[in-house]
């Protein structure tokens, strides 16, 4: 890594940016191979791919002609590990170390594209040669995530090469704090962490709050299961978030700030730590930044695994070293936050938008999106979907466009059932809502929320009662216990839904659930409790028939709830291949080769291993006929 | 658990010093202690209470509130099954059950020989490659019930 020297003034920083930009122009003349290596990429073997790539380039004598750039995640997680060869932008995916050797020989030496490593569209089956031809990327508008491809997140100089810190220089030398805040207000940027509060108003309130000492915080406690865009931004472009915070500190008048990052994100923690070190070395953090009167200290605080700490007052308590329990608002953090001083707390994605708005102007930003929701939003498109990954789309796009055009539809030709948005505070939207446009207001009206941007797709094999049970279990576990309505409400709702999935549901349960949901919502203090009922209410609203099938017919239509199903072999489809027999951990499957197999119900523990092993769809979850469930008294 | 680690008071002192004896850094201090011992030994917490001059009960309250902390020793290997929504709809509960069956312990427990601890996590944020299981820091993507014995085998001697 190149040594970083301290920039004494704005001119020196400007010069360094120009130098790096020029070097980047030079680099464009040669081939650059960009390897995606975020957490997902590394989990799929990107580090071995990089090693193999370096070795192959050495062996072919291409070491000096071809540059490698190791970057964070490009968003297309399904295709990991992948690489892009610039300048052509040839996109190769799902690579192993031997594949890389082939690519170096074929593409770099011989100049041929290796078809089998190209992306193949799950719907049209067509192969895309270039990154920009891949349908997954075509409908996206990647203003925040797009630069992940161009920067090595461990290097400040790489960030300068894409014009990094030009926005900071602009606000430092040419804008008054009020002007910065005015620009943020005009842009229409709203908080990307969930509630969607206008960012500019928050900044203004913190600036106007009396007192000399003020703090800024970056909320990177991305706790919603199924959402990971903040991880990707922190891992792949940490400097952009930090630059956003520096601009925020200038505008608000803060001299100190914290980045609160989940402990479950080791790579993000590492990259942020490195970035902070380099910024201090470069004189972009600390006392008298670039020789001006502006000083700023930023620290990293690691979370310790508590979902409720995503709530701003709980997060502040956690930074102060206390138990992460939320407190009553007002006073809002903008009035009394960290150490009881005015504090501005924004989400990772929100901070990452700031440099872009400062550089391109409020009008540019507000030209994207709908009347009430401006800019883009990153969603994590996961679950039962072909193209899983992070998608950044303009506000106002429809669910259908995201799920079918970008996501490539549902795997194995199954039918779409629902999409869950907004994490445990959100809800499940059915197929009839597919043409719903996405912005803060319309999602709320539909009974869900924007939330941090998780988008979990569910197909016909997903049981909606089970999904509600899952979220309630999560929430009763994560409820801090301060408000009785939330602590007991989530617990009781979970017990009722659990009983329903176990075949113990009774007439009147659904009405009781609705009553409890309302009480939990009305009487809880923080966002966790106030929204805890959403997963239940939204599934009840759109999938009441599934609840009723569980209660009145003791039947799980999706074939998920263990007590209500049993696995059986479909004789017409069974080829007698013995795959299920080998997979069964309890020896519950009988049958000889080429004969139809049989499942012994007294031995079967319903683990589903046979279903997973069968390649002929010859095993199905049938309705458990002999249900003799007696409602037991549970402790 | 058969292994009893003795608490090295010097290293504890060093951790507290690094954080400037700052009570507000309690969570970070506990994280550093756990990084050394893989759990929070009672003896270390008692000493910490004296060093930081805060009541032991306040330390315990923080240590038990946050999921990342453990007051009991962990096994030599730790398998963590991700229970995030995306992993859930792709079968994470069944994978957890298979781990429980193979290791003969429930989630949150450690095997008697001290070899394995089985943990769950709310979400690891690599939802695209779910169901995900992390063993000793290695991520295993797209796991299935049938892959569980293979994954365990890789860490068994």
Automatic annotation (TrEMBL), chain B:
The keyword Ligase does not apply. It comes from the Bacteria. GO terms for molecular function: 2 iron, 2 sulfur cluster binding; metal ion binding; oxidoreductase activity. Its cofactor is [2Fe-2S] cluster. InterPro entries: NADP_DH_HndA-like, NuoE-like, NuoE_dom, NuoE_N, Thioredoxin-like_sf. The keyword Cell membrane does not apply. [2Fe-2S] cluster binds at residues 82, 87, 123, 127. Binds 1 [2Fe-2S] cluster. Transmembrane segments: none annotated. Keywords: 2Fe-2S, Iron, Iron-sulfur, Metal-binding. Signal peptide: none annotated. Belongs to the complex I 24 kDa subunit family. This is NADH-quinone oxidoreductase subunit NuoE. It comes from Candidatus Saccharicenans subterraneus.
């Amino acid at each position: 890594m190149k040594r970083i020297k301290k920039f004494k003034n704005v001119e020196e920083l400007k010069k360094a940016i120009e130098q790096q930009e020029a070097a980047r122009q030079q680099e464009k003349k040669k081939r650059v191979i960009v390897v995606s290596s975020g957490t997902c990429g590394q989990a799929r073997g990107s580090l071995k791919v990089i090693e193999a790539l370096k070795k192959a380039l050495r062996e072919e004598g291409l070491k000096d002609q071809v540059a490698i750039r190791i970057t964070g995640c490009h968003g297309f997680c399904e295709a990991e590990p992948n690489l892009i060869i610039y300048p052509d932008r040839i996109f190769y995916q799902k690579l192993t170390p031997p594949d890389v050797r082939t690519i170096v020989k074929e593409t770099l030496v011989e100049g041929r594209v290796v078809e089998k490593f190209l992306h193949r569209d799950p719907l049209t089956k067509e192969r895309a040669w270039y990154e920009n031809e891949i349908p997954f990327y075509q409908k996206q508008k990647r203003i925040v995530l797009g630069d992940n491809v161009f920067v090595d997140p461990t290097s400040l100089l790489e960030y300068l090469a894409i014009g990094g810190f030009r926005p900071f220089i602009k606000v430092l030398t040419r804008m008054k704090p009020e002007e910065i805040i005015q620009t943020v207000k005009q842009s229409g940027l709203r908080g990307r962490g969930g509630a969607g509060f206008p960012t500019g108003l928050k900044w203004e309130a913190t600036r106007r709050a009396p007192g000399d000492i003020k703090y800024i915080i970056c909320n990177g406690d991305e706790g919603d299961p199924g959402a990971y865009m903040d991880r990707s931004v922190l891992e792949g472009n940490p400097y952009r978030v930090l630059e956003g915070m520096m601009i925020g500190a200038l505008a608000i008048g803060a001299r100190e700030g914290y980045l609160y990052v989940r402990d479950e994100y080791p790579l993000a923690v590492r990259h942020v730590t490195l970035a902070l070190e380099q910024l201090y070395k470069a004189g972009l953090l600390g006392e008298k930044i670039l020789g001006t009167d502006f000083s700023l200290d930023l620290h990293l605080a690691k979370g310790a695994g508590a979902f409720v700490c995503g709530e701003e007052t709980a997060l502040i308590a956690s930074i102060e070293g206390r138990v992460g329990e939320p407190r009553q608002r007002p006073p809002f953090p903008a009035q009394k936050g960290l150490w009881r001083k005015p504090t501005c707390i924004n989400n990772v994605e929100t901070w990452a938008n700031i440099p872009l708005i400062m550089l391109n102007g409020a009008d540019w930003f507000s030209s994207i999106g709908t009347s009430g929701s401006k800019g883009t939003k990153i969603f994590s498109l996961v679950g039962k979907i072909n193209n899983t990954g992070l998608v950044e789309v303009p506000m106002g796009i429809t669910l259908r466009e995201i799920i079918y055009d970008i996501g490539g539809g549902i795997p194995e030709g199954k039918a779409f059932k629902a999409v869950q948005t907004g994490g445990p505070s959100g809800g499940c939207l059915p197929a009839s809502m597919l043409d719903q446009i996405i912005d803060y207001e319309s999602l709320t009206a539909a009974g869900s929320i924007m939330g941090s941007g998780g988008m979990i797709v569910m197909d016909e094999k997903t049981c909606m009662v089970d999904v509600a049970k899952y979220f309630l279990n999560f929430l009763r576990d994560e409820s801090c216990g301060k408000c009785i309505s939330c602590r007991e409400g989530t617990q009781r709702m979970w017990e009722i839904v659990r009983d329903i999935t176990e075949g113990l549901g009774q007439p009147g349960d659904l009405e009781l659930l609705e009553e409890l949901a309302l009480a939990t919502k009305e009487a809880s203090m923080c966002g966790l409790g106030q929204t805890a009922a959403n997963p239940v209410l939204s599934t009840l609203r759109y999938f009441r028939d599934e609840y009723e099938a569980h209660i009145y017919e003791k039947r799980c239509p999706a074939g998920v709830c263990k007590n209500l199903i049993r696995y059986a072999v479909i004789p017409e489809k069974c080829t007698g291949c013995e795959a299920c027999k080998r997979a069964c951990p309890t020896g519950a499957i009988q049958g000889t080769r080429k004969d139809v197999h049989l499942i012994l119900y007294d031995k079967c523990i319903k683990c589903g291993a046979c279903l997973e092993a069968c390649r002929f769809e010859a095993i199905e979850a049938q309705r458990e006929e002999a249900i003799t469930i007696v409602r037991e008294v549970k402790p | 658990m058969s292994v009893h680690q003795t608490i090295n008071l010097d290293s504890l002192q060093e951790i507290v010093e690094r954080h400037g004896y700052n009570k507000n850094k309690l969570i970070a201090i506990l994280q550093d202690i756990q990084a050394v011992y893989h759990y929070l030994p009672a003896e270390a917490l008692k000493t910490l209470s004296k060093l930081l001059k805060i009541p032991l009960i306040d330390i315990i309250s923080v240590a038990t509130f946050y999921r990342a902390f453990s007051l009991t020793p962990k096994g030599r290997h730790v398998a963590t099954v991700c229970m995030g929504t995306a992993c859930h709809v792709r079968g994470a509960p069944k994978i957890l059950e298979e781990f429980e069956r193979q290791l003969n312990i429930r989630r949150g427990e450690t095997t008697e020989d001290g070899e394995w601890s089985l943990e769950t996590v709310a979400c690891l944020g690599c939802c695209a490659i779910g169901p995900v299981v992390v063993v000793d820091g290695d991520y295993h993507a797209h796991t299935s019930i049938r892959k569980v014995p293979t994954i365990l085998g890789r860490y068994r001697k």
